[in-house]
Amino acid sequence: MLAVAAGVMMAPVVLHLLSRWRYRSVAWGAMMFLSETAVPRRQSGRLRQWVLLSLRMLILGLLGLALARPVFGGDRSSGEPQASTAVIIFDRSASMAIDENGRSRLALARDAAQQIVQGMVDRHVHDQVALLTLGDPSPAAAVVPTADLHEIQHELADLTTTTGVADIAQALLQAQGILEKAPIGPRAIFLISDRQALNWQNVEAKFLNNWHRSTPVVWIPIGSDGSSNVALQKLEISNPPAIAEIPIDAVVRLHNFGPTARNGVQVFFALIDERGTRRQLGSATARLPADGDAELHFSFTSNEPGCRLLSADVRSAGMTIDKHLDYAFDVLDPLRVLIVRDEPPPRPDVIRLALSPFPSSRPGGAHNPATVQTVLSQDCQAATLVDQDVVILAGVQQLSAAQATALEKFAFDGGGLLIAPDESVHLQDDNSLLYRDGQGILPAPWAIGETAPRSEETVTWFDPSNAIFNFLSSRGATLSGISIRKFVPVNVPEKDSTIVLARFGSGAPFLLQRAAGYGHVTQCSTTLNADWNDLPLTGLYLPLLQSITRDLARGRAIRRNLRLGQPISETFDRPIDPRTLKMQLPNNEPFDPAALEWSMSNGRGILRYLQTEQAGTYRLRYATATTRPLQELRSYFVIRGIQTESDITPVTSPRHQKLWDSVGLKIVGSVSVARRSAVTSQPQDRELWMGLLMAVLWLVGVELLVARLLSHGGRKSA
Amino acid sequence: MSNVSRYLDPLLVQRLNQLQLSARRVVEGATTGSHRSPLRGASIEFRQHRRYVPGDEVRRLDWRVYGRTDRPYIKEYDEETNLRCLLLLDCSGSMGYGLPSKFDYACRVTAALAYLMLGQTESVGAGLFTGGLNHFLPPRAGTSQLSRLLNLLEPVLPSGESSPGKALHDAATRLDRRGLVILVSDLFTDPHLLHAGLAHLRHDGHEVILLQVLDDDEVNFPFTHWVRLRGLEGDGSELIEPAVARRIYLKNFQWHQDEITRLCAAQRTEYHRMITREDLIEMLTRFLRHRAE
Hints:
- The complex is a heterodimer.
- Chain A is elongated, with a radius of gyration of 40 Å.
- Chain A has a nine-stranded mixed β-sheet with strand order 18-17-19-20-25-24-23-21-22, sandwiched between helices.
- Chain A has 16 helices and 34 strands.
- Chain B is of the alpha/beta class.
- The longest helix of chain B has 25 residues, at 242-266.
- The interface between A and B is large, with 33 and 43 residues.
């Protein structure tokens, strides 16, 4: 239609040019009356001619447009429906897994989308559809509309929920870009999502700056506007590392997103060993305030060392994806602790007793968390430190440089080191060998010359968030009962890696810690025996020393609970057959063998897996090379996703209104209404031909007037 | 075709024989004619006596007065002298426009006037000009002068730029006695330049007549379609849309005519416009009758 109008508009121009080309040439004498004083006037006259020409072009163009019978807001140049282009934005985020009267929101959304596509199929006018999905863990590739609507239907049928978050703002902009490149014809965006307010959180000023409000958007909300949901938010072991036969304390945190308190929310725990055997551990019950948290503690034991997967499940209405959490960890053999002294151990050896209180050979009895060895300082060498998890320097007077280097290497390899002074310690040597102006492993240098006893101190502050003191929080106890008669002050450096774990009433540090490579070093400012304090005489000594030792041993544990994108790394102490390595992904899809990197180092097999963009539990399957027949084992890794989808609070009415105004959103509850209003029907179209015809008549009058003025001027001069 | 029959057809000659060109003013002439000369000399009408001064011709002494008064006096007369007329013809390119061309028409006017005046024993000269006075035939009497004038016109083709004002200046320097100067041209020039030339001639005491020869197209600008006008005096070409150009042309043309009329009145110069489509004999008859009045 526009092309015809443009062609008609060009007719005067063509005639004008033809007239110019068909002129005749005349020899003329009176040029002076044209080329001198007449020049400016001729230009003005030429301008008037162009005005006349433009008027005539406009008249013909508008006439052509009127004959084409245009309509406002649509196109009915022909009686046949035009091919339309639609973008379907389909929400498959985690919240779409919520059950709605026996059917998930995803299934309801899929039905709505299928109806829209089927309606286009039935029109037989080669409509095009692009499918954008919300909640994909990684950005989708460029999407282009396709006329193969059956392919779109197949894609819709295969869609499942993800663990990702829906970002409607980003999808709308992407859909807008797709429609801008689409062929001429009706266009629409169908947004099929639930009513979750979080989906719209990015529809703000930045989005609106890039959004064209004229783009037609029809929102088909799916599901109810209920907001009740209980989610598991955290699952971990509070006293890592886990040690065989030693109680393992698990803690789980729940959050109630609903407006009412929830009582009797049951959480079920299960443990899966490295052979894949699942064992139900039991359950715990929580009371959840409205829109609040609750933490549950649960203890269990594991008899054998090896990798474990701890699972927690909560049974509650709402989403399904946030009702289950996994936590992967290693159960270790009792910790190997080496005590380094200048002299043979005193009797009683309170350190040994604290770490290994029971006879280890006692069958069926209690089990020690550690096996303790003692070595004299002059016999302590690098080889001595091999196969140790934690080394305790209990008042070693003076270390040699080689010993200091060996301890430093031990710590950097993941070992734990506990350093405590006594009267004989050469503090200056410790500073120079272990602290080395901040370059060593000692958390803080000893303050030389300030070792004189002061008045008795008590430990008045400790960091309750540190795992070392979890035993206190479970008992509701403090360290204030410990009386300290003497300690060595330290100068806490302003280094991020050094943290103070506990302080005396004077503010002086009692316990300090810093990371050193893969390992950790804890510094105690008083003795570990009763020489300077009465700590060994209290009931806190045993759990405190065991807790410190376990905390120091965590450097040996493999990091099995990771964030999105962090690589999986597994070290095998025992020989395995690398050909049997398989990675089971969270969604059970086939893994990419190229993403598995296998190498050997110091007789240990090291595996790395890099593709961890998907949240969930990864199960590494392998077989040992020494046993026949091959025995398949598993190790577990948990990739934590971003759990913002748990808040399913619906969009509020004011927010509805704002979206209506700012985005130009059209909210419909019926798919058929949506399809009709957006693509196939144009009930608000208005014919424009009458107005155009009136404009033509008016312009004809103007043209006649202008032409009359021009010709009148010519005759008057003649 | 002979030069005479080319410019003076028998019918024209017959009508010219019935007319007589007379100047309103007394002009100076070298030979006795029908015009009173301001120069005092030998003639039949006595004017006055004056005292003899050395250098006067002795033959002009009035011996009777000398005998009675014993004082030498010279006898002066108002001489009857012939008209000295210079015909200036514009040969510029613009004169070549039209069918017949303005130049042909102007040549016939020039020839007719020369024939008329030579027949009355007047002295007639001619000057052909474009940018300046290119050819000059001094005024003389006698029928052979007509032949010389026609021979002067015959080979000329109109071309080049026109400058009537400069031609009038040149003519003023060539004329040693007062006379009649008739300028035959389309006068497509700057009126101010023309005015300067006229002022020069009038200052020298000459009578000047402007005969403007125009084609009817130049008066009415009759073009109705796109046309490219090529300048006949080398002034380029213009592609024009007639509806617009006509109004402007006619406005400028009218202004030019008004200016010429105004400056002729200011210089007491006769001005006549001749259109080539009009009959030459009628045009000359009208002109000469006007002169006779």
